[in-house]
Amino acid sequence: YHWGSYIIPPGYTSDVVATAGGNPYGVSAKATDDGTIAPTIVRAAEHMAQRVVSVTQWLKAGREALELVAT
């Protein structure tokens, strides 16, 4: 069963991934007792979010190019 999604891990696309623990599959974190998350983790999460946006833009551009060819 395919539910029509893409998995977009951050991989090793930025040094912030390494400083946050080096998990190429995505960011994970545990808040401290006072509810904060380490700044390195926040930067890695921001990088991951930007990567999702970038890949989405690439997919959208490819789809729009295909639609132009089809017309």
Could you walk me through the main structural features you see in this protein, from its secondary elements to its overall organization?
- The mean pLDDT is 85.
- The protein has two helices and no strands.
- Helix content is 52%, strand content 0%.
- The protein has 71 residues and is mainly alpha-helical.
What characteristics describe this protein?
elongated, mainly alpha, single chain, 71 residues
| Rg over C-alpha atoms, rounded to the nearest angstrom | 16 Å
Total number of strands: 0
Could you tell me how far the N terminus lies from the C terminus, measured between alpha carbons in angstroms? 31 Å
Largest sheet: none
Which class best fits the helix and strand makeup? mainly alpha
Task: Give a brief outline of the structure.
It is built from two helices and no strands.
Layout: helices, strands, pairs:
Layout: H1 15-19, H2 39-70
